[in-house]
């Protein structure tokens, strides 16, 4: 069947002396005069062409980077990530179990978030100044409850997890994190909202690196170190495999 549609092809003639493949899309009559305020389509096109001629075809950055301070960089410097001793490194099977269990907890939290009308009254009563460190630490001395974390918005979740990571700086070499602090970290991770923004990702990576650092100070020859490494391995596993920071994985 023969189509009735007409095709119009633009004939392009290349100039061998020109080093440009740019060709005009519209032809403007030579009688068109450049006006301050165009009144026709051709006058408007002529004005656009004249304004474009004021700029170079290829733009380049002319900033003098030598004026930057020596301690400034356009790149973010990654902190080192301590590797696990062979006898403290978790198996991939163990890590898969942790990710599966954590996924179930996250699913439960998601269902709770979708039913705010059914929340108990104490969920929405937690109010903290994000910069009040003593208030945060006072909260973390209590037993962690889902009602204390579920009502926090993303920025507060990030801030709480950031402070929990800073608390890990107090862990002495050869020791592991406090059980209650570990429960709080797990609760904050379970309530962290997707999709992750860059700040949240940075906090999660800092947590994994801090846990790896604490683990690196455990005595691999001490039988109790295997138990001490468990919570550290869990958080490294969740950050790397659930939150997809795979370069930090064991």
Automatic annotation (TrEMBL):
BP GO terms, sorted: spliceosomal complex assembly; spliceosomal snRNP assembly
Residues in coiled coil: none
Keyword annotations of the record: Cytoplasm, mRNA processing, mRNA splicing
Source species, domain of life: Eukaryota
Cited Pfam families: SIP1
Cell compartments where the protein resides: Cytoplasm
Keyword Ribonucleoprotein in annotation: no
Any one annotated GO CC term: SMN complex
Transmembrane parts of this sequence: none
Role noted for this protein: The SMN complex catalyzes the assembly of small nuclear ribonucleoproteins (snRNPs), the building blocks of the spliceosome, and thereby plays an important role in the splicing of cellular pre-mRNAs.
Quaternary context: Part of the core SMN complex.
Family under the similarity heading: Belongs to the gemin-2 family.
Full protein name: Gem-associated protein 2
């Amino acid at each position: 069947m023969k189509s009735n549609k007409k095709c119009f092809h633009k004939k392009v003639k290349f100039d061998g002396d020109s080093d440009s493949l740019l060709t005009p899309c519209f032809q403007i009559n030579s009688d068109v005069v450049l006006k301050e305020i165009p009144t026709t389509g051709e006058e408007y096109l002529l004005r656009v062409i004249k304004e474009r001629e004021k700029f170079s075809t290829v733009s380049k950055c002319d900033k003098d980077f030598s004026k930057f301070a020596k301690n400034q960089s356009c790149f973010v410097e990654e902190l080192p990530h301590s590797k696990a001793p062979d006898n403290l490194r978790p198996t991939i099977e163990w890590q898969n179990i942790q990710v599966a269990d954590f996924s179930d907890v996250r699913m439960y939290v998601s269902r709770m978030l979708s039913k705010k009308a059914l929340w108990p009254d104490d969920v929405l009563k937690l109010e903290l100044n994000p910069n009040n460190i003593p208030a945060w630490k006072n909260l973390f001395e209590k037993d962690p409850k889902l009602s204390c974390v579920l009502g926090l918005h993303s920025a507060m979740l990030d801030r709480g997890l950031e402070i929990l990571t800073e608390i890990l700086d107090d862990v002495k070499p050869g020791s592991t994190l406090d059980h209650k602090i570990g429960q709080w970290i797990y609760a904050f991770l379970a309530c962290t909202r997707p999709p992750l923004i860059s700040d949240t990702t940075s906090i999660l990576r800092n947590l994994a690196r801090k846990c790896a650092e604490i683990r690196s100070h455990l005595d691999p020859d001490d039988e109790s170190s295997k138990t001490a490494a468990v919570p550290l391995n869990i958080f490294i596993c969740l950050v790397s495999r659930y939150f997809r920071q795979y370069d930090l994985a064991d």
